[in-house]
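P.,

For your records, the input lines for the assembly:
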Amino acid sequence: MKIKVEYDKQLSETEVVLRCNNMKDPEVNALLGYLQLYDGTVIGYKDGEAHKLFLYEVFYIDSVDEKTFLYLDNGVYETSKKLYEWESELIDTPFVRISKSTILNTDKLQSVRPTFSGKLEAVLENGEKQIVNRHYVAGFRQKFGI
Amino acid sequence: MKRGSLKGCLLADCVSFTVAALISSILVVVTPDRMFHMTPNYYLELFVVTTFVNVLMLLTMRLPIDCMPVNMLIDLLDVAVGVLGLGGGIFHWFGWRLGYVVEAVTLLTVVYFVTYGLMIWQNRELARQINRHILQCKCGKKHAAEKQQQ
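Structure tokens returned:
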């Protein structure tokens, strides 16, 4: 894959053009997913105020008592979307479902380790730990091309 | 390997059948008054039982229980159902005497734990591969950032 960066002072915003010969190439889809992630912003609510958040800043999305929360380094934000809506929206991005109530950003992963119950423990860059349930291990490993 | 997947179930079936067949064969050689009636169909029946137990586990694994001891207890119940129901009830591997039943269930429980150990070992291998991938991505990002700074 060739990577070319062109500088143009006349451009009002950064433009990404992806040139490929096969739209079904997994590498192309992965790149599109990353671009979608970096371009994506969401609205999160905290203390009654709406905040504009970048998706790539989100560590994980968790659902508790029918409410959905976005976990960032600087705090926890509530979101109006349900977990299943996030899941379908974040296909082909580094986000992956790891349990019934959690979607994890694999870009924020520090490491994983196995547990004796056949699950995986994901350690995030902020030191938090999340459990990848057995039911979701297959989807999780697919994100890494394994 | 995800134990709750069909692929994981097939792998667990292969491993458990191999381990069970191996232990049965050793027992036949070592113990003169063997507990099992080793009919010509024994290994086929054993395969049916291990397959049944693994399919049963595949189904019970879908129960929304996250407590490891409870999960293991359910797995062991699956083993007991397979051994007693199919092995004892249908294939008549052993008579319904307490000693035989305990021996048969013990044997298949040993098979379960050996299979379980092998699956955990495989999980460790998966974690190692993912960690290597994470490390490569982080190195790649660091390299790209350094290149951009230059």
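Two observations worth noting. Strands of chain A lie at 41-46, 49-54, 60-64, 67-72, 75-79, 95-99, 102-105, 109-114, 120-124, 129-132. Chain A has three helices and ten strands.

Regards
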